[in-house]
Predict the 3D structure of the following.
Amino acid sequence: MSVYLTIDPYCEAQWRLLLARAEALTGYVLDEGTEDYLVQLLIRVATHPELLSGLLSLDRLTAQQPAGRSRLEYLQDIGDQCLLFAGLFPDQITERMVRLSYFASLGRTAYQQAHELSSATPYAQLATGFLSVVELLQAMHELGEEGSALTPLHAFELWDDTGSDRALRYIQALTSAI
């Protein structure tokens, strides 16, 4: 994703600018706390690429809570991984023969349970607006030279399972079949 190569991974202002551009593309605006959370998540992943190796294991997402971690940390980790998978790495989902909507459901549920444990506002917005935040991340990807993070199949599945307007517009841009 070349757009990320031009960003200083430690520069919060650059991540915020990229996020603002994605918000302008999608029309979805995060509240300040959720924006802070998402920017910190992107910085953490960009500065510690080894965290992405955890994304490659579907087993980690569905495994029992590891010893030594709080329930809140575990739920946050699941929500974050589902968000990153669905938003930035949908190709990894396809390789595992799982639909994007599975990750949306799992991530939404994890953030909802995290909110119930902590009452933190970002978890509430991430739970209720999970699909919109996924679409923000996908829009960030589109801002790069590679274009959409979605394949036509991803877009169709996302639209079919969730009613995503953004996925429908992507499909309509590709074909006149819908």
